[in-house]
Structures are given as C-alpha cells and as structure tokens.
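haha ok so turns out i had the wrong file open the whole time. this is the CORRECT one, sorry everyone. sequence first:
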Amino acid sequence: MKSCQNLSIEREKVIKTTVGLSSKVKIKEIGKSITEVIDSILTTPHERERGYRSMSIRLARKVFCTIGTNRVKRRLTKRSFLFKEARLLRNILDIEDANLNAKRYFGITSRNYYDEKVALLRTLVSLADDLNLTHGFSLDENQPYHRFVYYLEFKGFQFSWHFSETIAGVPNYEKPWDGVKNSTLGKLEMLILTAFPDILKN
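then structure:
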C-alpha cells in the first residue's frame, strides 16, 4: 500500500502535468496536436459526422487514443487523484473491457468477467451520482437473460450495458437507446482526448 507521502508526490506530478499546462503556448501546442490526432483517427465521412470511430477491444489495446488502452488506463489513474472525470472515464473503460471479455470467453472465465463488470458498475453508479449525470436502468424485453440495460449520459454521448439485475436506488431511464452498436470505445476515445489532451505525452 502506498504511503501518504508517496500519494502526495503523485498528486504533485499530476498538478505539474495538468494544471501546469495553463500557459497559452502549451495549450495552443497541445490543442493543435490533438486536432491533428483526431483528424487522423476519424478517417471516413461517417466517422467524422458522428464524431467517433468503431473498434474492437483487440484493436483498441494497440491504437486507442493512439497509445493503447493500457497506457490510457495508467494515465487516467494518475489524473483521477484530482479529477473525478478521469476516474469516471477510467471506470467506463474498465467496464467495457470486462464486458467485451465476458462475451469473448465461455464458462467460468466469462462469469468472472461478468462479475467484475457488475462490481465496476456499482462504482460507476456512485460516480454518476457525484457528478449529477443522467443515468438509470431500463428493461429490454428482447433479451431472455440480461434484460436490464444501464444507461449513462456524459458530455453528449450515451453509454449502455446489459445486466441480469438492477441496483437498488438507481432511477429508471426513460430515453431511447441511440441505436449505435459497438460504439463505447470510440466514444470514450474522443472524450478522453478532448478532456485530457496531455494524456498523449504522459
């Protein structure tokens, strides 16, 4: 377990790499590079129109935000000491990772990933409440087992996952699904790049 002193040092590092970017020159440089990165990521007219791309978890592990999911997770964790949004985005990425792995594998392995997904959802619900985000469960009658869909709205994007049960105290979600399959990773990628453009550097 990390000592309080070590945690304090890590917080100072985050401050230097985020708050320390307040000089106009650095913000201008990062803004330009992020614009170029996003332009290079959104290569088709359809992707540019909707503002994100579709990708599999295998592809994302290598090219997510151009640096891969593992680096993004580590760098979001550093920023989560100061920013709840970073914690939220890391949590969503973890849920989607567990969600896709639960679908990819079978038997006990699949069940373990599903249990991880449920545990992560409880954290996400708490973060959504703290940030006053629109979220909740709705019923998908077309699904025989995982009939409950948890929805979360964040900065114009809708995220959703199927579950076999609800969580007490979570409200109903009345809005329709946005209808876009396999969009979570692409939406996350754009949110992370725009919220934390310096994530490409450290």
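Confidence is low (pLDDT under 50) at residues 1-29.
again sry for the mixup
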